[in-house]
Amino acid sequence: MLDTANPNRMPNSPPNPPNKKDSVILQFENLQKAIKDIFVTPDEPMMNVLVLFDEKWKVLVFPRAQHRPNQYFLKGNDKLLISPAAADFGGQLITPRKEDFNKITIDDIENIFAQTSTSEDILRQIGKNYSALASKQRG
Prior knowledge:
With 139 residues, the protein is mainly alpha-helical. The chain is built from five helices and two strands; from the N terminus they run H-E-E-H-H-H-H. Strands 1-2 form a two-stranded antiparallel sheet.
């Protein structure tokens, strides 16, 4: 049978290897499924994604434990209006209010990221899930 997607391919020849874009998409989908399986959610799992290009593409994925830290919901002077997103996870902590910029401490930042990031144990489990999915696809 003729491969209509690639009419130059000979019948019964092995399929073309996936192109880099397809490979990246497949890897991201596997990672998304590996994360989703840990957090058991019918929706897209919470994560932040940064995509960089520096002679080659890099996709950085930060699985999330929770959307906002407790400090976000506090009242008065204890409140820190910070809800880390992709830029924050990438190293650029953004404080929308000047008062938060002036009062935030290293301990606050560590605590905020400890609350919103996944633990090392969960990251290891995500890695195991991802590896298992990749192994199944390789056959």
